[in-house]
Design brief:
about 60 residues, alpha+beta, five-stranded antiparallel beta sheet, about 20% helix, 2 helices, 5 strands
Length: about 60
Amino acid sequence: MAKIDFVERTKLNYDEESDVLYINFEQPQPADDSDITDEGIIIRLRDTKIVGLTILNAAKMLI
């Protein structure tokens, strides 16, 4: 199923010292563009597709 494959390919990495959560869809890859939300979420794009998210102050936002 496509949904299961998508979940299996998603990679999470958390930097506790910086309190940053990195979410990569597939293997980490360079982005050619990015947007940042008012909440501190960086949306990383490659060829207009989302390749990952970077969540700043993750523990404060998610807990």
